[in-house]
Structures are given as C-alpha cells and as structure tokens.
Amino acid sequence: MSSQSNNAASNPKKRKLSVPHVYVLLVSLTILAAVGSWILPAGEFTREMNETINRTVVVPGSFKEIASTPVGPFQTFIAIQKGLVDAAEVFFFVFLAYASWFVVLETKALNAFIGWMLRLFKGKSDCILVAFVYIFGMAASVFGMFEETFGFLPLFVGMSIAMGYDAIVGLATIGMAVGIGYTAAVMNPFTVILAQNFAGIPLLSGWAFRLVTWFVMETLACWWILRYARRIKKDPAKSYMVGIDMGDLQLDHDELVNTPFTARTRAVCGVVVASIVALVWGVTQKGWYFNELAGLFIVMGILSGLIGGFNPNRLADVYVKGLRDIVFGCMIIGLSRGVLVVMREGHIVDTVVYYLSLPLQDLPRWLAAEGMLAVQNVINFLIPSGSGQAVVTMPIMAPLSDVLGISRQVAVLAFQFGDGLSNLLWPTALIPIMCAIAHVPLEKWYRFFLPFFLIAVVFQGFFIAAAVALGV
Question: Which residues are in coiled coils (predicted)?
Fold first, then answer.
C-alpha cells in the first residue's frame, strides 16, 4: 500500500494548462480594468470635430491628466449591463443573423448544396478552401467586411466537417482571411482611407505595396490552414476538436454526397445567393450596416423557411431554437464591451495610449517603426475597432512619425498591421464571438492560431522594415 502511495507521489499526474471559460476571462479583465482605474492616472486628449470626415478626432499633443475617476466594485458589475447596451447593435445583429442561418440549415438545402459541391469537386477540397480564403480576404481588404461574414460561419464549419476536416478549418477559412484582409487592406474604407485622411497623405497611396503584402499574408494563411487540414484528414485523431459536440453543424460526408439537389433545395440556395449579392451591393453602394444587414438576414431566413416547406409555426419554432443556440455567443459581446466601459469610465484609455507612445520617441528610426507595430497591437486590445483606433491613434502617430523621420505611410501601415490580425487574438475583440458561432472552444482556437500569429508578426515586422527602407 505504502509502495503504491510512494509511486503516486513520485509520479504525479501532469496537469494540463487550460484557458479559463471565456466568461470567466472577460469578467476577470473587467475587474482588472477597474483595479487599473485606481492605479493609473486618469487622463484625456482634447478632441475636436473634423468636418472633412465628420468625426471627432484627437488633437495631437493635447494629453493632460485629470481628476481621478476610479471605478468602484459595484460599478464594475454594472458595466456588464452597460456593455450589453453599448454593444446592442452588434449583439442583435449576431443574434438575428445566426438564427436566420439556422433556419436555412434546418431546411437541409445547404446539405444538398454541399453534397453537390463534394460531387463536383471530388478530391479537390483543398482548392475550395484556398479559393474562399482569397475571396473573403479580398472582400475585407476592399470593402471592409468583417462582422458581415459571421453569418457564413455555420455554413463553412459544416462544409469543412463534411470534407473531412473540422470546425477550426471552417472558422479559419473565414476568420484568418478577413483578419489578414484588414491587416493588409488595400482600400478598406473603415481603416486605410480613414487613417490616411488623419495622416494627411493622399488617399489610397501605397496601394501597390499593400497589395503585395496582402497576397503574401493570405498565401501564408492558406499554407497554415492546409497544413493543419491535411494532417487531420489523414489522421482525425490529431484534430484539436476531438470529443467536441458540434450539434447541428456536424454533417456526414457520405450522407451529403448522396443527398439530391432538388428543385426545392435549389430554390432555397437561390434565396441565399440573392441575399449575398444584396449584402455586397448594400454594403458597397448604399452604406448598409448592422440594422440593414439584420433585416436582410431576417428576410432570407423567412423566405428560406417557407420555400423549404416550413409552415409559419414550424418556422417560428426553428427560429427560436437558433436564437437559443447563439445566446452564449451574444453574451460574449456584452461582456467584452464591459471591459472597455470600465476603462472609459475610469478615464484610463487615453492614458494607456499616451504612455505607450512615449517610449517610441527615444528609439532609432528603424526600431521606432517596429515599436509602432507593437504599440498598435496592444492598443487593439483596448480599442478593438478599426475606425475607433484610427480616430484615437493616428492623430498621435502621424506627427510622431515626422519627429522620428519615418514616413506617415509607415505609420498607417503599422496601424493596419496592429488592428487586423489581433482581432483573432484579443478576447476583447471579435474572436470569442466567432468561436461561439462556430462551436470552437477558445482554447482550441488559440492552440491552432497562436503559432501562426507569431509567424505573421515576424512577416509584418519584415514588411515594416521594407517600407522604411524603400521610403514607402
């Protein structure tokens, strides 16, 4: 008996490191932000209205410390409710868009479509993944699509599983594509054009350099996704998703291949295609955003359900089931926004941005440019909005680049790099929501994505150095 005890003591079972539940992580960050409001000095930049772009912008060199406004314990938890209210537009867009896609999934029309695709491209599933990475990447790079792609996640997760991959592959095909599309955007109106306007440089200047960067980075993403996809297709036991219940997104390959593509299912798919066309047209030509897109997805769900053979009561039941499934993901939106609410109420967002920018002034020219990249990545944790980050940081970074002897184009590039791909890293950004929709636990995503992120940062550093050397 004692021998067994000694063996147990000498060979303790290794405990696996695990990421906390995403709710625990976000509430902990909210509490940490509140603690920071008691420690960090409160401060703010002076802001003024820029009539050209109709936005309130930061006045360079205007930072000043103000009276401390620490956030108390009770106010910290009130911030969760405020975060939900603050993020209501995004919350309800995801809520309604997912439920509408759930209706489409329940008609089994997408099953029939995927089965048809599998028959048509038999043995060419890798090509399908690569094609969509470039398509979604270009949509993000040119049109600024990111949140608008959330509705496609259930389809791509189901398709990836049916092709012998897993949910991570489906999530990465969209997520990494649009993340890099923002990182190396050629003409994204929400980041590139806005940042160049603040920097006072010609709009869309430097597009050729960014196009090369975009192509290299998207190709790097294709390599990383295919590397993992081929490995798990060869040996499914190597999938990070082993043992994870995918529910309605779990599609069987053999069953799909034998699913007929009937007139009814083709009609439902026609509604989906028409909705996608309307989405692209509305976003690019009419400036549609969350309200209009939510309405579009609702119409898509209703028409798909009716054409798919559901009576009104059945349609309502399916819609409710979809809403129930996405509540978890929608709550993440409010919780992550609560972190930012606490930092705003404690007046420490501007403080952090200001003090992060100070060390750059003492660095050599080439190193200062890399420092800008690092600072923008950190700031994206605090301000996970491309346009919001441009409003706060570019009026500071643009004149700072003049002092450092760096072109303002490089400052814009550093902003882009810091804003884009880290949206798939920081829990205050978009990745927790995307993981919830795709049924991918956050720790599984990090296991897949973190090594790529580090590789991508090295590539970004190279492109920043090249931009400085070439005088872009």
Answer: none
